[in-house]
Amino acid sequence: xxxxxxxxxxxxxxxxxxxxxxxxxxxxxxxxxxxxxxxxxxxxxxxxxxxxxxxxxxxxxxxxxxxxxxxxxxxxxxxxxxxxxxxxxxxxxxxxxxxxxxxxxxxxxxxxxxxxxxxxxxxxxxxxxxxxxxxxxxxxxxxxxxxxxxxxxxxxxxxxxxxxxxxxxxxxxxxxxxxxxxxxxxxxxxxxxxxxxxxxxxxxxxxxxxxxxxxxxxxxxxxxxxxxxxxxxxxxxxxxxxxxxxxxxxxxxxxxxxxxxxxxxxxxxxxxxxxxxxxxxxxxxxxxxxxxxxxxxxxxxxxxxxxxxxxxxxxxxxxxxxxxxxxxxxxxxxxxxxxxxxxxxxxxxxxxxxxxxxxxxxxxxxxxxxxxxxxxxxxxxxxxxxxxxxxxxxxxxxxxxxxxxxxxxxxxxxxxxxxxxxxxxxxxxxxxxxxxxxxxxxxxxxxxxxxxxxxxxxxxxxxxxxxxxxxxxxxxxxxxxxxxxxxxxxxxxxxxxxxxxxxxxxxxxxxxxxxxxxxxxxxxxxxxxxxxxxxxxxxxxxxxxxxxxxxxxxxxxxxxxxxxxxxxxxxxxxxxxxxxxxxxxxxxxxxxxxxxxxxxxxx
Length: 603
What we know:
Number of domains: 3
Strand content: 5-15%
Cofactor: tungstopterin; [4Fe-4S] cluster
CATH class of the largest domain: Alpha Beta
Distance between the termini: 31 Å
Number of strands: 17
Keywords: 4Fe-4S, Iron, Iron-sulfur, Metal-binding, Oxidoreductase
Helix content: 40-55%
Organism: candidate division KSB3 bacterium
Shape: globular
Family: Belongs to the AOR/FOR family.
CATH superfamily of the largest domain: Aldehyde ferredoxin oxidoreductase, N-terminal domain
Number of helices: 25
Domain Aldehyde ferredoxin oxidoreductase N-terminal: 4-206
Radius of gyration: 22 Å
CATH architecture of the largest domain: 4-Layer Sandwich
């Protein structure tokens, strides 16, 4: 095979065995890799009703056909499982160097099944793999565990591991790779922890062979030049990183503030990408094969929040900043460092703290439970609570379950700003109508990278306050995003590229002739496959919704004053555009057209 390595590593943690299988070439052609291909394997092998934290759940680490290639921004890999936060399919994507190294070591995919009785890690080197004892690593934060593993194996080793958050099965735990990159959402780190799998270490000396090397180089060079010439990928992201959006969204009036009670934050300038660049930035950092280099290496030089690491990204900056009413950038940055060390998702952690702040301020959470003043604007609290969540100590034990379950504990789940129990990110859906439809219909719950409508409604020229046509726009973005994810390419490249360029890359690399049309069908197939799994898992159209605040409470002030999200006007049209019935179930005709009619699920 070209592009794909052609090997799958199957790891039975219960038995302590590893074996190599051949990749299903037909599935690879139809689903590409990463999110699409691993979901096809997962659906075939796992009962949708499985308890996410039981040994019967599986976890798949997977790369795409473009991962580790000479293309641009091709460092992406994915983790697929059933998420404990949502009870839905979980597909969490990360960059860095780990994904490319996995392919260099001889594998497209690693399937983990069962659960070990004791802590272990998986060591992979050039086509060989073995499970090793990890008892000495259990309880250690991610940076320390990574350093130990590199010292025990090879200096060039790449590591993906969980921290105490995943070990303690926090439903907002993530998996960290290369110390600072994260498969962040849906609680995938908790699944890894439930299997007593501390880490995966890979060492590879191989390479990915293109079907047409000359064409692959030509396409890669053209794409690199396109990205460098684009205002976002060539200037905005390299200069300010993702926090360049802080001032943009705040000025738009759609910057969720104090748990989505407001949409304009008075502290935006103090926490902006411009301020981060001028005060904390050490240097830029790029993932594998990337010309954008949006990563931020930062340092807080002094004071109670002193530290060194990477980030915060825009979503983290918001989750700990405006969402919690905190305008102290060093405190936000420190909380970000702690999330990376404990292996917990910054979006869900910050948003859960914000939910706790509203519960506390409204008297629903007693002080004896809180143990401190959990109030909006309290910079010390966001740092202390992050550590408590990572350790599951005190009130942190409850917050580690995520905001929806926290709200339930105190009788007010409506104060969780989540969709399908996953915390929504940094775009208020009352001010950006299409984002509300995206949050509600995302197969993995509240998410901004399943069809980034902000690109059209805020950064583009589509009116954000209208609902007409948003169904078709979103479907197109959701399907094309599924393709980019599954190819192993960074989503940020889509600011400057379309599926025409993706098709050119994939065709040159794999030797399979892809077109824009065939890729859109591929994306549609992937999105429907995920939907089918969720329906079998017990989710219904009732889960395609938003928090009551988004539907009933108008924005109180600012440029979007008076707006609510008009989801009920968009959802029926979206179902119809998707080829689903009025209950959000794909029709037999739709499934037949996508080759999914006779799909068999795992038992």
